[in-house]
Design a protein that fits this description.
alpha+beta; three-stranded antiparallel beta sheet; single chain; 10 helices; 4 domains; 321 residues; SH3 type barrels; five-stranded antiparallel beta sheet; Arc Repressor Mutant, subunit A
């Protein structure tokens, strides 16, 4: 029994076959040689399958030509290469690298096979990746399970629809259902964040995707129009609740620098305004930087960091005695 071929693959096989022949390809040859048609149960089933495929390809703009002899009898079908073949795609190094990163990011999603095929084609055309892709881009880029909300959120933004989901805010004790008009998606500090209009609170809010529990529902309600310009840095609603001024050693303290309110100054300045969702998170980030970070203001954060560091010192001293 012939192996079943999915319709999309069969359509692609038909296009490749009709473009690869100099003469018209007869129906009998199409059935025998093009993968996907041998599984037809009868001649009538093949005819119906082929007619549907031919009509669909023509509706997509594929110029399938019907070739007939002088008496009007159909000899077969072909696609003139000059009418349909694309010109060679000349991508820059940056464009190729961007495509590879995108393929890696979607490597575990439903489009993984297509993404992998695209990368192989790029490598075939461009040669060894070592010759054109910056070394900093080698490796693997993956979306984790906590980023599963990306696909429905992208769909909602593309179709201008409101979404709903269950969210656990850092300051909340339980999960809450949110109804949001999605405006922007951005990756920052290793986390994906959604900015949009929270209809439950009638204000703009920012949500970290890893705190979304369960599936995101794309509703039929049109979303509100996003503002013409993005919000000021630090205006992140519930995501940035506590701030402090911290002195950081040059070239050090990557963890605390990622919390800078002004990303443009995160690595350029040595005294930064930083923010975290809670005081606990902020104190922990400063303490984790060790001698590379010194909190300057406000006094209550200074006192709490000093208290926490003394606890750590006392614990180590007790363990050594």
């Amino acid at each position: 029994m012939a192996e079943r071929v999915e319709r999309t693959e069969r359509l692609l096989n038909l296009v490749i076959a009709l473009m690869g022949t100099q003469r018209a390809m007869a129906r009998s040859a199409i059935r025998a040689q093009v993968p996907g048609y041998a599984s037809a149960a009868s001649d009538a089933a093949f005819e119906r399958m082929f007619e549907r495929d031919k009509d669909e390809l023509r509706s997509m703009g594929v110029p399938i030509e019907t070739v007939a002899d002088d008496s009007g009898d159909i000899l077969g079908y072909r696609i003139a290469r000059d009418d349909y073949a694309m010109q060679p795609i000349d991508l820059t190094i940056e464009e190729r690298s961007a495509l590879v990163i995108a393929a890696q990011a979607w490597g575990r999603a439903s489009v993984a096979p297509v993404a992998g095929t695209a990368v192989r084609k790029i490598e075939t055309a461009a040669g060894d990746p070592d010759t054109w892709m910056p070394s900093s881009l080698h490796g693997s880029v993956n979306l984790t399970a906590t980023d599963a909300a990306l696909l429905p959120l992208m769909q909602a933004m593309r179709t201008d629809r409101v979404v709903s989901f269950v969210y656990r805010a850092p300051s909340a004790d339980d999960d809450q259902k949110r109804t949001v008009s999605p405006w922007r998606l951005a990756s920052e500090g290793g986390f994906w964040r959604l900015s949009g209009f929270d209809h439950d609170r009638q204000a703009e809010r920012t949500f970290r995707l890893s705190r979304i529990h369960g599936a995101v529902t794309v509703t039929s309600t049109p979303r509100t129009t996003p503002p013409a310009s993005p919000p000021e840095q630090g205006d992140r609603g519930e995501e940035r609740g506590v701030t402090a001024r911290v002195r950081v050693a040059p070239g050090r303290g990557a963890g605390i620098r990622r919390a800078a309110l002004d990303p443009d100054q995160a690595w350029a300045a040595n005294e930064l305004e930083v923010a975290c969702a809670t005081e606990e998170a902020l104190v922990a980030a400063i303490c984790a930087a060790g001698p590379d970070a010194t909190v300057v203001h406000p006094p209550e954060i200074v006192a709490e960091v000093q208290r926490r560091l003394r606890q750590i010192l006392d614990a180590h001293s007790a363990g050594a005695s």
